[in-house]
Automatic annotation (TrEMBL):
SUPFAM superfamilies per the UniProt record, alphabetical: Winged helix' DNA-binding domain
GO molecular-function terms, A-Z: DNA-binding transcription factor activity
Protein name: Predicted transcriptional regulator, ArsR family
Source organism: Sanguibacter gelidistatuariae
Residue ranges occupied by any HTH arsR-type domain in the UniProt entry: 10-92
InterPro entries (alphabetical): ArsR-like_HTH (IPR011991), HTH_ArsR_DNA-bd_dom (IPR001845), WH-like_DNA-bd_sf (IPR036388), WH_DNA-bd_sf (IPR036390)
Top-level taxonomic group: Bacteria
Listed SMART domains: HTH_ARSR
Any single Pfam family the record assigns to this protein: HTH_20
Length: 215
């Protein structure tokens, strides 16, 4: 069997760059970084870093603000990794969550009408988060199976597998951070507890947890 074809989504193309993943990792570790700081940390040319940041910003992974100065000098642009608070100010993020929720509701109603299966009922808002997560994983190129009852996601055929070895696991840390951001942006009680790389042959496991369940 041949290797899985690389997905062609814009999300995958954005995250398939080792340099952009490194920048995301730096911003997840500490926010409000300047272009000069990121250039020094990565060793990349300023124009290259600027282009990567623009791509990450368009994808909704990075935000920027212009600092307020009390002294003379040109104000600097400060870059941060996107957080859950961005859904309130970013219409694209809000539309993405709403679209994922609509698709998830349609699929869930169809499945329940054809093969009813009793499952633990998730509290209000949790299903919206699960739908947003499913959409994010799909757009990122992951083959993911979400068990809503067990709050576990089994991921196979990772398209970033080569990058995992080259980055010494940094890619997995970045993707866990992105998952946490997606769940936070969707709003609800579900959080990502851990991402276990290579939990089985060709498989990784994402463990979720929920603040409370409805009876």
């Amino acid at each position: 069997m041949g290797a899985m074809a690389a997905p062609r989504t814009e999300t995958f193309r954005t995250l398939a760059s080792p340099s952009r993943v490194e920048l995301l990792h730096l911003l997840q570790e500490r926010d409000r970084r300047t272009l000069a700081e990121l250039v020094e940390a990565t060793g990349l040319h300023p124009n290259t870093v600027r282009e990567h940041l623009q791509r990450l910003t368009r994808g909704g992974y990075v935000t920027s603000i212009v600092e307020t100065r009390t002294t003379r000098g040109r104000p600097r642009t400060l870059y941060s990794a996107a957080t859950g608070a961005d859904v309130e100010t970013n219409d694209d993020v809000a539309r993405k969550v709403a679209s994922a929720t609509e698709r998830g509701d349609l699929l869930r109603r169809y499945l329940e009408s054809t093969v009813p299966t009793p499952t633990a009922r998730l509290p209000e808002g949790a299903l919206r988060q699960i739908d947003a997560l499913d959409d994010h994983l799909d757009q990122s190129g992951f083959n993911a199976c979400i068990d809503e009852a067990a709050l576990r996601v089994d991921i196979t055929d990772c398209p970033y597998q080569d990058m995992v070895a080259e980055s010494h696991g940094m890619v997995c840390v970045v993707h866990l951070g992105l998952v946490r951001t997606v769940l936070s942006q969707a709003g609800g009680p579900v959080t990502a507890r851990a991402l276990l790389p290579f939990s089985g042959p060709g498989c990784c496991t994402l463990s979720l947890e929920c603040g409370r369940r409805e009876s």
